[in-house]
Structures are given as C-alpha cells and as structure tokens.
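ok so I'm stuck.
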Amino acid sequence: MTTSSDRRPLSSRNTGWARAAARWLTSAGITPNQISIASIAMGALAGLSFWGVGSTDGGLRIILLLAAALFCQLRLLCNLFDGMVAIEGGKQSRDGAFWNEFPDRIADLAIFLGAGYGIGLPALGWAAAALAILTAYTRELGRACGVAADFSGPMAKQHRMATITLASLLSIAEPVWDGRNHVLTVALWIVAIGSGVTAFRRAMRLVLALGSSPGAPPQ
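replied:
not stuck anymore, here's the structure
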C-alpha cells in the first residue's frame, strides 16, 4: 500500500471505473496490505504460466500465454488499488511503506524468472529481474536521500508489464512463422536493457539533484 502523497503518476487512478472499484474494495473491508500481498500471488501465477509455456504446445500453450498476460495485468491492478484504498479510502498503516514495495519486487522476480526459465534462458530472466529491481532501488534510494521519487522510464514498472504482456500475446502467433519463444526472448532483452538504462538514468538524475541541493558538500 501507499503511505505517501509521493505516488507514481497514473492516469487510470482518475478514471470512474478505478474509483468505483476502490470504493467497493474499501467498503468490503479489504485492506491495502491484503491487496499488496495479492500482487505477489498474481506475479507468481504469471511466472508459473510463463514457465509452463516452455514445455507445452498447441491449445495449452495458448492458454498459458493468455493466463500470463492476464496475471501480469492483475498484478498492475493490485498495484493501483492498494494505493487508492490506502489514500482515497483512508486506510493507511504504519507498515504500509513495506507492503508498498516488497511485494512488487517479489512479483518482478517471479514474472521474469518464470519467463527466463520457460524459454530456456534463465540467465536472461535473472538479468531482467535484477535490473528491474535495481530501477526500484534507485528510486527508493533517492527518496531516502530526501529527493522526490523518480518514476521516469524508459522501463518503469508499467513499461515492463506492458512489454511482457504484449510479448505473451504476440507469442500466440509464433507457429505462423514456425517460431518458438523468439518473442519472449526479445522481450526479456528489451526489459533487461531498458531497465539498465532506466536505473542509470535515475542514478544520474539523483546525483544531479543531490549536487544542486542547498548545503550539498563540495566535490
């Protein structure tokens, strides 16, 4: 859940359907932390679906690819609603900062490791997962240093999920050109490289922000 007004800018947060869903969750007595924990389950299910893709064919493979795409998007919805229930629903808690971040990192690990092992390239899955976590670490390091959270891309969380979701859907058509796992391989490379660029960009922006802050030590 979210415990600060320093939140990721999301246009979906202002839509009618999101507000209605957040109100329903609040009235149902569901806590932000429970929603955050649910995001781990969604990430794990997405990862298991991706892992299963590597050893299946035909209709079952299509079902697993669709399931992976669905669970990736449900993970994002959990990330949306935990903050809305916390802030707009007035259900903030002292341990909210932990539940706002920790489940996201587990979800990233599960999704990208599942995809990496599923296509037989575990090292690539580990690279994508590690660099995705590094982007979040750099953002939170900035907040710990007193700088506003940097949600910039090119491969922030919503971009990573869009990339892997699109890849899972496009992978359904791979039999047309007699391919297998090529799309997911390319997607993991895009996530890994893009996350590396994002972490580096955020780090440089943080260094510049700290260097221009009043009272910054001379270099």
